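Try this one yourself first.
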């Protein structure tokens, strides 16, 4: 009878140790995969800066827009345009140009019309 209890207790301990070992290995694998799955804050900021520069470059190259007073903010593919342009038609053109940039998922256009020097 004592031998049966001893074997049963030893089996229980072995099962528990095997479970803990498997859990530790799975947690280690998740921890190593996590950095690749979620980019760091530094990498995300760099990507946002790069996308903002690409949008500003596209706006500047477009001959129909005076992009001097247009400010671009990028966040995870969402672009916000602020500032002002000299003509109302340039507001829609700025939206269209921005949407044409690779990596842009949405555009929040807050541009207003203001004549230069005012």
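Now uncover the answer:
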């Amino acid at each position: 009878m004592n031998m049966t209890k001893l074997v049963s207790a030893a089996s229980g301990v072995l099962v528990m140790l095997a479970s803990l070992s498997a859990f530790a290995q799975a947690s280690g694998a998740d921890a190593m995969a996590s950095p690749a799955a979620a980019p760091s804050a530094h990498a995300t900021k760099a990507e946002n800066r790069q996308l903002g520069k690409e949008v500003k470059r596209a706006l500047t190259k477009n001959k129909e827009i005076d992009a001097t007073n247009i400010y671009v903010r990028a966040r995870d593919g969402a672009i916000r345009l602020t500032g002002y342009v000299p003509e109302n038609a340039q507001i829609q053109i700025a939206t269209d140009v921005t949407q044409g940039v690779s990596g842009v998922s949405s555009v929040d256009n807050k541009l207003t019309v203001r004549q230069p020097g005012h």
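Discussion: The chain is about 60% helix and 15% strand. Residues 50 and 75 are 11 Å apart (CA to CA).
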